[in-house]
Every structure is written in C-alpha cells, then in structure tokens.
C-alpha cells in the first residue's frame, strides 16, 4: 500500500469506514445465506466428469483433476451473465435515486467494461462435474463429440477430500482462500434477488461524502472501496449460478477462490492460442475406490475405447476390475 493511498485511507472519517466494513459483512452474509441453502440440497451418490481420450489418460496417470480459471471456462459468458443481471438490477434501483446512485452505476459498468475489470475482483477456479453420466449435450461439448469418456466418482469421499484441500488457507494468520462444492443453480430470478439485496446495501453509502470536505484522494479511495467490495460480492454470488440454457448439464461444481490481492501458484495449459490458468486437485488421495465407473461416449468404438481405458487404468496403478466400464445408451452418430 503506497504512502499516498495510506494517507488518503486514514483521512476517511471513521463512521464512513465503519459503514463500508458493515456493508462488506452484510453482503457476505447475504451470499452466505444462499450458500447455506445449497448445503442442504440433495447430494448425488455419484458425479461425472466428461473428457476426451487425452483427458482420460492425463487424469488417471497424474491423479490430478484441473480447476480451471473461471474466466476461461468453456462457456465464456458464464460469470459475465451474472454480472449482466447485476448491472440491470443496479440500473433499475439507481434510476430514481439521487445523482450519486446513477454515478455509482455508471462507474461500476465502466469498470466492468474494462477487458480485465471483472477478473481483477477475485480469483476463482472451477472443476465441473455433472449429476448425469449420459447426457448428449455434454458428450458433444466436452467429450470429443461423443467419442470421449465420462468418469464417475463417488461423491462423498471426493467432496470431503476436496474441501479439506481448498478451504480456508491462510497467510500470516489472514484468510486468503476458501472453497467448496455445490449444485449449480439456473434460476436468474433468484440471482437477481441476491444482487438486489447487495446493491440495496451499498447504494446509500454513496451519499455519505456529502458535506464532509473530503480530499479528492480520500474520495477516490472511498469510492474505490465501494466499487471493489460490491463487485467481489456480486461475482461471488454469480459463481453459484449459470445461464438456464445449460440446465441440461445438471452441474455439480468444485470451487476454489482467492482474494484479489493474493496471487495463487498456478499452472498453464494452451487452448485456442491462449494460456489458461489452472490449479490441480489430487483426486486419488480420496481413496482407492473413489473412481467407480468409466462411461464410453455414444459415438465411440466400444471395444477399442474399452481397451484404451483399461490400459490407462493399469498404467495408473488402478485395478481395472474395480472400475466398471460401460457405454452410453444414447443413439448418436456425429455428422
């Protein structure tokens, strides 16, 4: 933190800073309430991860699943869809308010229109599973157009191991990361409601600088706090949702997240001329029986694909007799 920023921050009146801190706490509780609801949802006994033949071999031999940077997922609009709903809610709530409400809304959208504006608010890494192990849309999108595989995992030990791995990492005694597992929601109305509750908490704070004679530097720091904290909580809420067009995926998501000011140690892979950030999760540490099933895609040559899968299991030190290998029941031949 620079000396100039520190001085500006210190000159913000104590009651205004308390208001910012209270908003941060209240917004966290709003999102936390929805998280609590998700924790009560039905947990499927098995979850499935769709992949290609190369992906299958890599997952088995390395013993690692990849958590991809959430801004580089296969659906590039995923989190931006949530932010789009948030800006709509913000516009609606600001239009009949004082000038500073409209100014806040405009500044918020300007910050997000920056190519990296959303990405700077936090670090999110996701590994996607499905409660459905034989879904045509996912065979086509994620498993080599039906020629790939779906790995079926025992949910309970995999979740338990992941949560122990991802949750509540600290640096010098300060919480820097969190994580968890949950079913994705496809309810835009519910997400808009959560966004609305957060925005209703932050907008009144934009009027606090009235008649305070704050320096420009202090005013900039105060507004930057409001914009950043608001963006973080809106983004956090959006991670639990996905556009309803993807409802067939019935996604079950593993999430690891870090504060914006913490740079997690990541690896990179190439995709479409881009370097994609990812983290690794050691799924084998969940126990020898956590991998239950491998399903072969509907467009694949069953005998050839089965031999390949069993060879990969043996090379990975996994007894093929302990993993059921079947084929999709969907009639599908790619054109």
Task: Give a nutshell description of this structure.
By secondary structure, this protein is α+β, with helices and mostly antiparallel strands.
Properties at a glance:
335 residues; alpha+beta; six-stranded antiparallel beta sheet; four-stranded mixed beta sheet; 10 helices; 44% helix; 21% strand; elongated
User: Given the C-alpha coordinates, what overall shape results?
Assistant: elongated
Helix content: 40-55%
How far apart lie the N and C ends? 58 Å
Unreliable sequence segments:
none
Task: Figure out the total of helices.
Answer: 10
Q: Evaluate the radius of gyration.
A: 23 Å
Q: In percent, how much strand structure appears in the residues?
A: 15-25%
Number of extended strands? 12
Secondary structure category = alpha+beta
Main sheet strand line-up: 7-8-3-2-10-9
What number is the mean pLDDT?
91
Q: What's the main sheet like? A: 6 strands, antiparallel
Topology order in helix (H) and strand (E) letters: HHEHEHHEHEHEEEHHEEEEHE
